[in-house]
Amino acid sequence: MKKIITQSKNKSKKKVTVKSTKKKVNSNDFLIKSQAPILIIGNDYNVIFVNDYFAQLFNKSKKEITKEFITNLNFYDFANHKLHFENLPFIKAINEKRNIADYELKFVDEKNLEKWFRVNSFLIENVKNDFSVLSFFTDITKEADLENIFKETISNISTVLFSTSVDNSEFNFISEAVRIVYGYSPEEIYKNKFKLLRSIKPNYFEQFKKFIKELYDGNERTVEYLMVDRFGKEHWVRHSGIPIFRNNKIVRIVGMIQDITEEKITQLKLERSEEKFRLLIDTADDLIFTLNGFGYFNLVNKNGANALGYTPEEMIGRHFLEFIDKDDEEKVVESFNKILNSSGITIFEALFLDRFDKSVLFEIHAKPIIIDGEVSGMLSIGRNITNRKNDEQKIKELNAKLIEANRIISIERERARNKITVLEELNKLKSEFISNISHELRTPLASIVGFAETITSDPDLPKETLNEFVNIILSEGNRLAKLINDLLDFSKLESGDDELHKEHFNFTQLADEVISQFENSINEKKLILSKEFPQNEIVINADKERIRKVISNILSNAIKFTNPGGRISVIIQEFGKEVEIAISDTGIGIPENQIHNIFQKFTKISRPGSQITGAGFGLVSSKQIIDLHKGFIKVRSEENKGTTFIIRLPK
What we know:
Radius of gyration: 46 Å
Helix content: 25-40%
Shape: extended
Structural class: alpha+beta
Strand content: 25-35%
CATH topology of the largest domain: Heat Shock Protein 90
């Protein structure tokens, strides 16, 4: 029946009617009652008609469905690219003046919910020689979801799925897993199917040809063969094929190719072995064993026995408790009683002793072997958790050190808060400093002059006396030279004229060298020295001689102010990009009211009960050196209990 669709215009809306050669039918009834969403737009892109289903689809009233609304809808193609207005099928139908069939697109609403539609758009000629486009929307969301699920499933299966033509001349389809098994992309296989054929080892090609012939004869078949991938690595594969028939004629071959290398290797090993179960458990790193009803070993895997320093043969026939630490026997016996009274898995820890009496902690998962309702033995798997327990202990120790570090940080913060700088005292401190320096210079100089005058005035001095005087002059001269060098170095640091000469060196080795320089002093005072250094090297980039001087200054003070029989400890720790050294002593300590002045320029700390020697700027110089290295130095001290200096430097 020939139909001509015409439209008549009113002031506010357009009415679409259908003329028939037999009778007239109002097409509005047909369009309104249609079960599919329908959209009609004119050649000016304005919306002429939408039915209730279309309005409900977008959760709008019919009046709200306008050209502007359609323009702003979020439509996407299968590649998830947003479609521009001119690329929508009903707009393309207008622009290109042709029907657009089976166009699939995705709509995303304001709540990010997705729906897929198949759109068919048809041109409708109107009585005034213009036209409009009628579009039917078919909901294919379920089909699209299934297709996406199918693609996702296929792409994540490690087995190669394929479909070939009957004559095997080309691949209709091959899954992405071909990259994993053969090293080729599906596109490369589509272009050249011989890449897979050439990968088969020559010894297995005849077997493969028989497999293909069986498929052509209409039989489902599976073949296993050895192949070489594109990188030269050998794989065992299981190749399965199924002929697909249509009208009693084979139209294609489908199947799968599975990498069975590990399975095949295991199978070949098991075929050569009389003890298949033994081979299986010996591949495990855990301790796997069975006990008879009396607690004697029936079976032990090789790796498990080796973990205890034994061979399986040495353990089989011996009682389980022979390998358990005596202090742990009672706990193990209690666990055995639980196993005997349970049909499930019992977990307990047991401390084994290996061949060399070294403790090895295992976590045992045990299950009774029940035959005819009675327990005839026990099957167990033991996991070595010695390292895990040691790690847990180390974590506890580190937490304790962290608490101590936080305590030191708290002390440092308190010291920083309480630190005051009094500008008026600076001149007084400078005067005291000059006085100290003058005294320190005068003392060795007086000795040098005095003994030199004695030697000059008495040419008949005995040789022994002369040598003694000369040694005194030399010693005092060295002392004077060191003092002058220290003073010059301090002056350079103070003025900022001196530059650091940085180099890479092992920090722990430098600390050891400095400590060795003081061995005689330590031994003379019978001090106890302890060191706690990391086993690995700690390489830093710094002025090696300056850092040596800092460690030497602090260690010298620790020795000087620690009474005979006391203790000195040196601890080095690594913190990411920083290294820390802590030097502690059990000496006389620093008065609390003087701690905040310890790094003050020109300050010399007076310690109770101690005759102080030196110019008093060693710690000041040390702080200047550490500051130049962008590090920090801090001190914690209590009178008659000791002092701790902590230095942290960037590596």
